[in-house]
Design brief:
Shape: flat
Helix content: 40-55%
Number of helices: 15
Strand content: 5-15%
Distance between the termini: 72 Å
Largest sheet: 5 strands, antiparallel
Length: 465
């Protein structure tokens, strides 16, 4: 069974080539070596006659993998097409334990040769670092033969999938039958899924599943979605939803086969009785007897950036840690859970150094950068001493000192990255919290109007005969 996907590359061509040909992912772990750190070393090492048992799975079609970046750029310069999409990144994944590295790579090379070998430069690499073997294809967006661009559309993707299935059958591998005809999954969503991080489409699926389980009719399902904060577009060919804070509608059918209108209706019919929404009990309040004790510590009030980060984590439902968060978390905050590790690290940095505003943050970052410059200078001097030293004991001591400097520099670099992240993230957090306040205010207004209408209806009903 092989799944396929392809997406465009618009930022840096060298980044995706280096990722695809990363020796840490393409080497056969049965013949590993710690001395190979880049693709050029890999190719030189593999070409040596006394090292032919070393197996790496990187192949260039119409290009040399070690010079693929330069050759692809040269093609673009030749036909004066440097702008737009730089390349296409394809993906072919096999079921765990179904294919050997040799078979997976052979299928990948044949696939690339058949689809693109006549007109484009392609780097094919087989990654062995996961339980499932998978091929990566880096395809130049401009043809070396005629200078025309490669166009990724439904037709070309269908050719990719069909060719992949046929080759899998030739090698006696399983094939997914009745695949969905929609476009392939976007790389950002696929990568987040591989890393176990939430995606906004995944969050929509979760909310739809909850709404289905709590409904007995399709009308009730639509009403439940709207109560969850979704804008639902009905009366159209394909039902679509728009979550809070998002600008675009999402067609339900694009979420998967189980989320088209007919499938949802079938799932609702299977409900024998609707499941009530889980009600989280309010935490028990503890009675605190206050007195005139002089030993009681005063809690320091959070201000500025510290207050912003703690409030943001509170609205996400992360704080307080041991108390159930009663309100439903806003969609934008649920989506930001993928950055929880970074948010936590930034919050710890602000609290550790008592940073409350941008000026203090910039001052702290400047101090860290100065410390880094001093450490880098000390390490550089050690490198000079190391090159001129011939005493083995002294060499070992120098290396140990250099390693210690490198470790400190690594920690300081992370701290600088956290400071930079706080600078860029804090404004976005303020905007999100402002939007949430507006949404909550609107929701309270609607609830108040609904309550007033309900009371008005009941009071009028008392005087009816």
């Amino acid at each position: 069974m092989a799944t396929t996907a392809i997406w465009d590359v618009k930022d840096r061509l060298d980044r995706v080539i280096n990722y695809a040909a990363n020796p840490g992912k393409t080497e056969n772990l049965d013949f590993s070596s710690q001395n190979l750190q880049d693709l050029q070393n890999v190719l030189e090492y593999a070409a040596r006659e006394d090292k032919t048992e070393m197996q790496y799975y990187v192949t260039g079609i119409n290009c040399d993998p070690s010079a693929a970046y330069k050759q692809m750029i040269q093609t673009k310069l030749q036909f004066q097409k440097k702008d737009g999409i730089l390349a296409f990144h394809g993906y072919q994944s096999f079921a765990p334990g179904e294919a050997t590295p040799e078979t997976a790579h052979a299928i990948g090379v044949k696939l690339a040769q058949e689809l693109w070998g006549g007109r484009f430069e392609v780097v094919v690499s087989t990654h062995l670092d996961k339980h499932h073997l998978h091929n990566h294809f880096v395809l130049n967006s401009v043809s070396f033969a005629d200078g025309k661009r490669y166009y990724d559309n439904k037709a070309t993707y269908a050719q990719l999938r069909q060719a992949s299935d046929r080759l899998c059958r030739e090698y006696s591998l399983s094939v997914i039958e009745n695949q969905q005809e929609d476009r392939s999954e976007h790389y950002a969503e696929w990568k987040a899924g591989q890393e176990g991080k939430p995606t906004w489409r995944g969050l929509i699926r979760e909310d739809v599943d909850k709404a289905i389980s709590a409904s007995m009719t399709f009308t009730q399902f639509i009403a439940t979605l709207r109560k969850q904060g979704y804008e639902v577009k009905t009366g159209v060919k394909y039902i679509a939803v728009r979550p809070e804070g998002k600008d675009r509608f999402v067609r339900m059918k694009t979420l998967g086969d189980n989320y088209c209108e007919d499938a949802i209706k079938q799932r609702i019919l299977q409900n024998r009785s609707p499941k009530r929404q889980e009600v989280i009990p309010e935490p028990k309040r503890r009675r605190i007897i206050t007195g005139k004790s002089t030993n009681r510590k005063k809690t320091r009030k959070l201000k500025g950036l510290q207050s912003l980060y703690f409030h943001y984590l509170y609205k996400m439902g992360i704080l307080p840690k041991h108390t159930a968060f009663r309100k439903r978390t806003h969609f934008l905050l649920r989506e930001d859970i993928r950055h929880l590790g970074e948010l936590t690290a930034q919050t710890k940095l602000l609290c550790k150094h008592r940073i409350e505003n941008i000026e203090q943050l910039l001052s702290h970052q400047s101090m860290v950068e100065q410390e880094m410059a001093g450490l880098a200078a000390d390490r550089k001097s050690l490198y000079h001493l190391l090159r001129r030293c011939y005493d083995s004991e002294q060499i070992a001591e120098y290396k140990q000192q250099i390693a210690a400097f490198s470790k400190k520099l690594s920690l300081l670099r992370k701290e600088v990255r956290l400071c930079t992240g706080i600078l860029s993230r804090s404004e976005a957090m303020k905007e999100i919290l402002s939007q949430i306040r507006i949404d909550e205010k609107e929701q309270r207004r609607e609830e108040k109007e609904h309550e007033q209408r309900s009371r008005s209806g009941r009071s009028n009903g008392q005087y009816e005969p």
